[in-house]
Amino acid sequence: MSDTDLLPVLAEIRDDFLALTQKERLQLLLEFSNELPDLPQRYADHPELLEKVVECQSPVFIFVEVDEKAVVHFFATAPEESPTTRGFASILAQGLTGLTTEQLLAVPDDFPQMLGLSQAVSPLRLRGMSGMLGRAKRQVRELLRAASV
């Protein structure tokens, strides 16, 4: 999947960012940070089930579920005092949840760079989002392997 044939939900997020100035992109990222869904109670009560994203400067944890229809559900938690990181987690939660496993695995690894934020946030922050995406893909691959055994 190239950046020209991104899935509609991811293309829409990308296009929303690219239609804005750098300053406005940061504002949109902040809006996403306010939209990070709360963890379901089953994870809020058992944070040990979540995987720490060590590429992130802030304490970010993710978990991916795949339901019986091979649909992905992406969960993340990030501190409210880390709006950039929360924004990236929210983008992925909104963009990856509902995809099939095949669709998620086809998301370009450089999707975070496609948002046009490289001038607005540090490379380390973008690496954090890439780390979240990479871990989500790895978790899906592990779930698929376990299901085929």
Automatic annotation (TrEMBL):
Residue ranges of every copy of the Fe-S metabolism associated domain listed in the record: 16-138
Family: Belongs to the SufE family.
PANTHER family named in the record: SUFE-LIKE PROTEIN 2, CHLOROPLASTIC, SULFUR ACCEPTOR PROTEIN CSDE
Protein name (database record): Cysteine desulfuration protein SufE
Organism expressing this protein natively: Subtercola frigoramans
